[in-house]
Amino acid sequence: MLEMVQPSARHAAPPVVLQWTRQGPSLGPAEDLDYGITLLRATQNGVITSPMVRLYRPAPTVAFGQRDTRLPGFARAQQACRAHGFAPVVRRAGGRAAAYHEGSVVVDHLQRDQDAMQGFQDRFAGFGEMFARVFRNAGVPAAVGEIPGEYCPGEYSVHTPLPPGPGGAERGPVKLAGTAQRVVKGAWLFSSSVVVEDPAPIRAVLVDVYEALGLDWDPATAGAATDAVPGLDVETFAAGLRAAYQPVEDRPWADLLRTVPPR
């Protein structure tokens, strides 16, 4: 997986050091998404030259896909978001509606690449496995693959099986992370939303949103890592992800904002 950001040991070149930045407060639900595209353009234009990861805890957001906006129930789905305290936004990449909040992390990986389309599919598999490995290191038995009835279905979703419920009742797997990718000439952005804590608001808003959109799904697939391992938190996951990305160099958020201001 990480050969995309650093050479393997068999190469003589030194490892590429990835820039790691932790965003401060949310810029706003729509603004957070837009800033990812701004950073992609900065990477394409050579303003950002090293591979970079931007990690942030988002404000409560439901990110709709472009296809969702063409459904008759889209306006009602937007109203459902607001009723649950989630902002409805439309993303430029990805499939169906996905929800995240302060108990989640969004991970934007940006990288210059003269042949950015090559490896497009491999990146989905590689990043999915990296997130699953970080979860496994934290005690969550995560795997990669679509689960039946999941929201915003994807071949490379990260999910975890749940322990039996009260009375030994079986429970199916829940989705932990979804991924999307945007490619421009000379650069790519791989964006992932990972739900770590506080699953109840995620489930509640998605139930009403998918009902409004008229899309079939299984609400039991919406959850968080804490469904499998109570007590896990965002900072533990973030620390594990940073360790997986070694070597990294911290780039202060304020420095990034000075270099690449939001539009």
TrEMBL record:
Pfam families: LplA-B_cat
Organism of this sequence: Citricoccus zhacaiensis
Superkingdom as given in the UniProt entry: Bacteria
BPL/LPL catalytic domain sequence ranges: 38-197
Name of the protein: BPL/LPL catalytic domain-containing protein
InterPro entries in the record: aa-tRNA-synth_II/BPL/LPL, BPL_LPL_catalytic
